[in-house]
Amino acid sequence: xxxxxxxxxIISTHNHxxxxxxxxxxxxxxIERISLPQKSLDEAIGEIAKYHHNYKLxxxxxxxxxxxxQIYHGANxxxxxxxxxxxxxxxxxxxxxxxxxxxxxxxxxVAKIPYGTVKTYKEIAKSINSxxxxxxxxxxxxxxxxxxxxxHRVIRSDGKIGGFRGGTSMKVEILKKEGIKIEExxxxxxxxx
Length: 193
Hints:
With 193 residues, the chain is of the alpha/beta class. It is built from seven helices and eight strands.
């Protein structure tokens, strides 16, 4: 059993307009994982539980889940990075959902993208002195803190939206709420400069 599974995480939830938000906290009172909004409470909890089988439900962090809901709906709010479980130590079992220092570097770089703006996968890679654009995309796709670490603000170099774990329509919705202009094409969507 690895370090993550020894102690249960605490999952708190929030429901707003038929969407359910869930946040999982470690025993250190740090956010371990955030679910994307789901259509049922079980799906929101399940998105965290599939990574952390040992969990307890509690109202303790409902305010954080509510804040994530507000960010999702376009509020320009921040959750401080020191509230996220970002520590990675390759010499011991992982304490976090982030497995490598490369993933951590990508996540920290994505965290710098300001509200209402976008960057490309290539720009993120260059800013961490890497040419591994696909690996950057994979690290962003594995982001355990969606909405808070704004992976939705990362797009392809050709201006197209690119992938998103919650689907393209969710990514478009979030970007529009942040004031990003988007052209919806027949087969894809693209940022309007």
